[in-house]
Design goal:
The complex is a heterotrimer of chains A (205), B (536) and C (94). By secondary structure, chain B is mainly α. Chain B has helices spanning 24-27, 32-60, 71-90, 93-106, 115-137, 153-156, 161-188, 201-233, 246-280, 287-301, 316-344, 353-376, 378-384, 388-418, 424-451, 465-495. Chain B starts with 23 loop residues before the first helix and ends in a 41-residue tail after the last helix. Mean pLDDT of chain B is 93; it is low at 1-6. The model of chain C has no long low-confidence stretch (mean pLDDT 89). The chains are: A mainly alpha (205), B mainly alpha (536), C mainly alpha (94).
């Protein structure tokens, strides 16, 4: 048995990895798409209730989170630019900023949720079943959609932490950066979803 | 293995020794061929478990009233039969087994684009399957919702719905990853010279299938998550008692589950499109029409889900719209049937078991397809909705179509998978038994369906008994035929005569390889033909 | 090197895009405080669409990707919109 016959050739195809990531993003978009569909149907049925409920949310916190996410989306794109320019130091700083923003977003979210939960507004609470249908559906969707989004933030953070250490150990470098590229793509997806979530949840009149 | 004359020493993928030995060399394998076989063994196991539960139902239906089980048991049995057969057998069926094994070979690649992801897909497929089986055994009792998990019953019943839906979610994830892998493989891994329009038609069908898997499955994923959340936190998406809308569940469910029917059927059509030119020794008629019709089915198939909901209280406008689209989606399917039949015309037909299975497929698929049109028009649908007519229709499509295509594929490719041949005579006998058993089992259900026998009912009035008995007898004949068929195949794979590398005189790439391919399939660059079916 | 086909986008360009995105965010918040009635949602969604277009084409480098990938991304969004519209054929007329 010759060496070549048994050794599976280690080949690298960055185009393939990137296409794979994009396809995964399509899946994620449609996962949230299902929720947006549910949202749009219930919103069409209960416009006033959705409006009243949305007033319970703080536009300020929502806006701050939007700015934080948009900013982090830029920094992660910059991290990629830095790696392409073989600037390891800056790349690390940019990933670091992105991770910090992600943590800030979750911190904000924690307080926002905490505030609601304090008022007894959470799925499974004693208060929720007393609400009428429109309000109940709004808050159910609010917790479900932002919760799923927060889960994606955590997944994105994990990916970026891996990227951080790989950049540090020079496993991601200006010759091989597809992993960071994919991590960044995933992070932009999280941003993309929030771009729709913010106006639909916080700004409906 | 004898023919080791190539420059690189040839080692069959079955004999190849990697890092792992024995059992681990299978479950840790990243070789697409081994993964294909792993899927095949697990799917065949689930198929026989599912068939066993199907048989139990048929025994129960032998006489009105309680025959061998209580009504609640019957509800659990048909639910388990549905979940097993749909999510664990027919959805992964052809694409995960033969897609994995033959997609890379047919496009001249060494493996799929992401071999480790491929292995991971199989692992989570197994995890999902274990969860599905566990849902039957946990203490609250087997789910009794049917495989459709319709709300509001599914959010109220006390049975293990959460476990079963979580299982379907995990299985869906496996399906998504397989689809993702195949799309990237087809885009990036084609051998030099292999363009989209000289690719064999099975990869074309898999490509269309993969897009459905990728884009439709997340919708069912989120729907099942919402159902789980509803049960756990009383959220109220679907349960009217909590402010939800049960019709919305049906919409979301069928947005996935109708395209899922094409996940089952498209690869089946692809297999038949491979088999017919080979055994007619004739160029496929209308190559481009067949290729494009796969994409057309996938595309339009996304938009017809409402035809499962005509009697649910949907608006009239939506009903005629979905009915119109349903008739449109039948066109590309019919194009394929015409092309298969025209390919046979004037060919030198070689009647071997795979070809006979393909013929059986076409016959059963035409019955299933045309009754599908009856169901697609609102007026007749309202009459036979939720009767055993529907049961007969989808079994003709899924079992008669996808199932027989699966058997055709095994008979066609077994010599390439194991390098050995089965006994033709027994295969033909098994086919005849299967065909008779199948029609006896399901055709009577069309008749009593029109007469008003509801589906999923434990009991029935005495007037339906003769047909129910014929149907049950058909079930026994079919299972006997299946056992004979599998016995013959296993015997052939284990100890049949050694097969030549191209037993059917096929022209696609897999037949240029040794009887069992080597680990990387192509030890030399494959020669890509301008026309994959260049007979005569 | 041959494997890296990704276009490098300068820091300046990225910061400019961010400024546009932030501007659009404040426009959305501003618009919803007016009472535009049923058009509020339309405007909010249009702006969100514009923002996502900017993120997709610049941050996600889609501008520099193959035509095929751009078509596929567009196809996914179109598919979703079509599914929503078809679902509303039921809900709007019930």
């Amino acid at each position: 048995m010759s060496e070549k016959a048994i050794h599976v050739e280690e080949h690298r195809d960055d185009e393939a990895s990137k296409l794979g990531m994009w396809l995964f993003i399509f899946t994620e978009l449609l996962l949230f798409g299902g929720l947006f569909l549910v949202y749009s149907i219930f919103r069409a049925q209960y416009p006033t209730e959705f409006h009243q409920s949305s007033l319970e949310l703080s536009v300020t916190i929502g806006a701050i989170n939007t700015v934080v996410l948009l900013f982090s989306s830029m920094t992660v794109a910059m991290a990629l630019t830095a790696i392409q320019k073989n600037d390891q130091k800056r790349a690390l700083i940019f990933i670091g900023i992105t991770l910090f923003c992600a943590a800030a977003f979750l911190f904000n979210k924690y307080f926002e949720w905490g505030h609601k939960i304090e008022h007894g507004l959470y799925p499974g609470s004693d208060l929720m079943p007393l609400l009428d249908r429109g309000h109940l559906l709004y808050f159910s969707l609010y917790f479900f959609m932002t919760g799923l989004h927060a889960l994606h933030i955590i997944i994105g953070m994990t990916l970026l932490i891996v990227c951080y250490f790989k950049v540090k150990s020079k496993n991601i470098n200006d010759h091989d950066y597809v992993l960071l590229e994919n991590g960044a793509l995933y992070w932009h997806l999280v941003d993309l979803i929030w771009i729709f979530l913010f106006p639909l949840m916080y700004l409906i009149s | 293995m004898s023919n080791s004359t190539e420059k690189i020493e040839y080692v069959s993928y079955l004999d190849y020794q990697g890092k792992y030995k024995g059992f681990l060399s299978w479950i840790m394998a990243t070789d697409h061929k081994r993964i294909g076989l792993l899927y095949m063994y697990s799917i065949m196991t689930f198929f026989f478990i599912g068939a066993f539960f199907g048989l139990l139902m048929k025994i129960e239906m032998l006489s009105p009233g309680e025959t061998i089980m209580k009504p609640q048991t019957y509800n659990g049995v048909f639910t388990l039969h549905g979940i097993l057969m749909i999510f664990m057998v027919v959805i992964p069926g052809l694409s995960a087994v033969f897609g994995n094994f033959f997609l890379p070979i047919l496009i001249g690649a060494k493996d799929v684009a992401f071999p480790k992801l491929n292995r991971f897909s199989w692992w989570i497929f197994i995890v999902g399957s274990i969860m599905a089986v566990a849902s039957q055994l946990l203490k609250d009792g087997p789910p009794d919702t049917g495989w459709t998990f319709y709300a509001p019953y599914s959010s109220q019943t006390g049975t293990n719905v959460i476990m079963a839906t979580a299982a379907a979610f995990v299985l869906g994830f496996s399906s998504i990853l397989t689809g993702l892998n195949f799309i990237v493989t087809i885009h990036q891994m084609r051998a030099p010279g292999m363009r989209f329009f000289n690719m064999p038609l099975f990869p074309w069908a898999l490509y269309a299938t993969a897009w459905i898997q990728l884009l439709a499955t997340p919708i069912i994923g989120i729907t099942l998550l919402m159902l789980i959340a509803e049960r756990m936190f009383q959220i109220g998406f679907f349960d009217p008692a909590l402010g939800g809308d049960p019709l919305l569940f049906q919409h979301l469910f069928w947005i996935y589950s109708h395209p899922a029917v094409y996940v089952m059927m498209l690869p089946a059509m692809g297999v038949i499109t491979e088999i017919i030119p080979t055994f007619c020794q004739r160029q496929i008629y209308g190559y481009k029409a067949v290729a494009i019709s796969s994409l057309a089915i996938a595309g339009v198939g996304f938009l017809v889900w409402g035809h499962h909901m005509y009697t649910s209280g949907m608006s009239d406008q939506a009903r005629w719209f979905f009915s119109l689209l349903t008739f449109i989606v039948a066109v590309p399917s019919a194009i394929k049937v015409f092309n298969w039949i025209t390919t046979m015309y004037n060919g030198s037909i070689d009647v071997k078991p795979p070809f006979l299975y393909a013929l059986a497929f076409i016959f059963l698929f035409i019955i299933g397809g045309t009754t599908g049109l009856l169901l697609g028009s609102v007026a007749t649908n309202v009459q036979v909705h939720d009767t055993s007519f529907v049961v007969a229709h989808f079994h003709y499509i899924i079992f008669g179509g996808m199932g027989f295509a699966f058997f055709a594929a095994i008979h066609y490719w077994l010599p390439k998978m194991y390098g050995r041949m089965y006994n033709f005579k027994i295969a033909n006998i098994a086919l005849v038994i299967n065909f008779i058993g199948f029609n006896l089992l399901y055709f009577p259900q069309f008749i009593i369906g029109v007469e008003g026998m509801p589906r999923r009912y434990f009991d029935y009035p005495a007037q339906f008994q003769p047909m129910q008995v014929i149907s049950s007898i058909g079930g026994f004949i079919l299972v006997a035929g299946l056992i004979l068929m599998v016995f013959n195949l296993v015997k052939g794979a284990k100890s049949g005569p050694v097969a030549p590398s191209n037993p059917w005189n096929g022209s696609t790439l897999e037949w240029t390889l040794p009887a069992t391919p080597s680990l990387e399939n192509f030890d030399e660059e494959p020669v890509i033909k301008e026309n994959p079916y260049d007979y005569k | 090197m041959a494997n890296n086909t990704t276009h490098t986008i300068e820091y300046r360009t990225l910061s400019k895009i961010l400024l546009v995105l932030l501007f659009l965010t404040f426009v959305t918040i501003g618009v919803t405080s007016f009472h535009l009635g049923p058009f509020t949602v339309t405007v909010a969604l249009l702006i969100a669409g514009l923002k996502s277009f900017l993120v997709l084409s610049n941050f996600m480098h889609l501008k520099y990707e193959s035509l095929l990938l751009r078509i596929l991304v567009a196809m996914v969004f179109v598919l979703f919109v079509v599914i929503v519209l078809i679902t509303f054929i039921d809900y709007a007329y019930r």
